[in-house]
Every structure is written in C-alpha cells, then in structure tokens.
Amino acid sequence: MALLPILRYPDPRLHKVAKPVQVVDDRIRTLVRDMAETMYEAPGVGLAATQVDVHERVVVIDVSEDNDDLRVLINPEIIWKSEETQVYEEGCLSVPGIYDEVQRAARIRVRTLDEQGETHEFDAEGLLAVCVQHELDHLMGKVFVEYLSPLKQNRIKTRLRKQEREALKA
Ligand code: GNR
Ligand code: NI
C-alpha cells in the first residue's frame, strides 16, 4: 500500500488527457489500491488517476457515510445524461480550500470495467452523479474551477500559488 502525492491546481499535468487502460492487470489493481488508500486518507469521496499524475482512465469513488462502498471505474463512459440538471457545491483535492457551485446533469448512466476487467452499468443521481462527472472531467484534463468565471479562476490561481509559496517557506 502507498499514499500517492496529489497534484495541485494550477499544475499543467492536471490538463493531460488520460488514455484508456489496455489490460486490467496487477499493475492497474495496485494503482487502484493505492488510489483508494490516498482518497480515504485525504479524505475525499473520489479520486481520478490524473490527480496522482497517472494518465490512464482509472477512478475510485466512495460516497458512502461509512467509507465501505468503494467503486472502481476503469475506462468509464457516461452513456446517458438527463436533461434535468442539479447544482452542487463542489470541492476538489487538487484545489484545496475552494468550494463553488457547478451545474451538471442530475442523473446519468455509466458503463465501466471493474478491477477484474468485467463490464458493468449503473445509474447515478445525487452526490454519486456529481462525483462521477467530476472524476470523468479530470480524466479529460478538466478541473471543476474551469466551469467558474475567468475572474474567479484567476483569483483561485493566485490564492493557490500563494499557498504553495508559503508552504515552501515554512
Ligand atoms: O472529495 C471530494 N468531494 C467532492 C465534493 C463535491 C463534488 C465533488 C467532489 S470530488 C472531491 C474529490 C476529488 O477531488 N475528486 O477528484
Ligand atoms: Ni477533483
């Protein structure tokens, strides 16, 4: 088991596009286990491989109260989105301390491989739907702050760069 360092916005590596996993093998299963450990330790409700500087389509999610419902998504695709939307106050482990509202589809259907390489489909709503869309954005190189106004994005960049400098001094 290993905790993986999480990239912080505005790191340019957060904008790389992840490639599909070719084979679900022990290398991928080790990545999944390390990502899950990193997510639970953070703590967060989801983590995309992009955030740990691995540019392959792997995501872990656990939106349960008791942290006992890990979902492993490999090569996930959203195959249906509702026209109805919901607004949710989002945060991101790569954008610490910043929370803002994002509008996304209220309900989605997801097709994915699990860590055994088996295909599954599931429907999601509420926080799970938010989280899946947030994580799939990461795999496309998109961070939630890119939905905010350019003014807000610049303020967030300035604030996080300053935090980074203070952290290096300390
Ligand atoms: O831990 C997280 N919480 C969260 C809250 C609202 C909307 C999305 C999220 S995902 C985030 C973890 C993370 O950064 N995943 O990429
Ligand atoms: Ni995130």
TrEMBL record:
EC number(s) from the headed UniProt entry? 3.5.1.88
**GO aspect biological process, one term:** translation
| InterPro entries, A to Z | Peptide_deformylase, Peptide_deformylase_sf
Cofactor stoichiometry and binding remark: Binds 1 Fe(2+) ion.
Catalytic activity, as annotated: N-terminal N-formyl-L-methionyl-[peptide] + H2O = N-terminal L-methionyl-[peptide] + formate
Cofactor dependency: Fe(2+)
- What keywords is this UniProt entry annotated with? Hydrolase, Iron, Metal-binding, Protein biosynthesis
Pfam families, per database record: Pep_deformylase (PF01327)
Top-rank taxon, per record: Bacteria
Residues annotated to bind Fe cation = C92, H134, H138
Q: Where is the active site?
A: E135
The GO terms this record gives for MF are: metal ion binding; peptide deformylase activity
General function of this protein = Removes the formyl group from the N-terminal Met of newly synthesized proteins. Requires at least a dipeptide for an efficient rate of reaction. N-terminal L-methionine is a prerequisite for activity but the enzyme has broad specificity at other positions.
What is the similarity comment for this entry?
A: Belongs to the polypeptide deformylase family.
Q: Please identify the protein, giving its name as recorded.
A: Peptide deformylase
Q: Which gene encodes it?
A: def
